[in-house]
Amino acid sequence: MISQHILEKLFDSHIKIRLFKLFLRNPDESFSCAQAHDKLLIKTNEEREFKKELQKLRDIEFVLEEKKSTKKDGESVYSLNPSFTFLNELKNLVLRSSPVDQQKLAEKIHNLGKVRLAVLSGVFMGARSSTSIRTDILVVSDVISERRFTTFIKTVEAEVGVDIKYTLLSTEEYEYRVKMFDRFLRDIFERPHVILIGKQ
Q1: Would you call 21 exposed, middle or buried from its count of C-beta atoms within 10 A (0-12, 13-18, 19+)?
Q2: In the Cβ-directed half-sphere of 54, how many Cα atoms lie within 13 Å?
């Protein structure tokens, strides 16, 4: 049966899970193989598996393939198939689950350096649209460089499957904003959030 054939191809690879997240969280976007490869931070030793898993998703028509040009060797782009048989079930399963392991994420943030506060909101709380979200992750630290933090964010984006809005504040700026009853901070703490490290 076709349905059994499809189910047998699901959830047998962490790379496939990342591909699911990428397309489910970006339903209106198309990605070339190279773009998906870069967004998911595929390692050299994972390239064969990545191409294999993308091919499987195309074979079961979870994603649709389209040539960017009429040339025979034209680059293909892939997008979510809105008519996929189990689309709603996958959305419920993938998008309602926590995008990342919060304990592991806290450990990764700790490893960046001394952190006073780390807060998750937005996409980490199940938000499917980022249009009204000010930030998805807030970190307060005096020792983490913007460059190092940006590199860290890219690894999280690869796991979550969507671009993350992030904020890195120094202790001085954070305390100033608190004293001023800053609207930005209020938006974070008045909405669903999780404090991974420290106290508000």
Answers
A1: buried
A2: 23
| DSSP summary character for residue 75 | P
* CA separation for the pair 54, 57 (Å, rounded): 5
Phi, psi values for residue 166, rounded to 5°: -130, 155
Asked whether the CA dihedral 122, 63, 15, 150 is positive or negative, the reply is negative
pTM score: 0.77
Tens of pLDDT, residue by residue over 133-181, are: 789 999 999 999 888 899 999 999 988 888 899 999 999 999 999 999 9
Half-sphere exposure of residue 26: CA atoms within 13 angstroms, side-chain side: 21
Name the one residue in this structure whose structure tokens are 């040539």: 67
Going by C-alpha positions, the residue among 24, 10, 158 that lies closest to residue 91 is 24
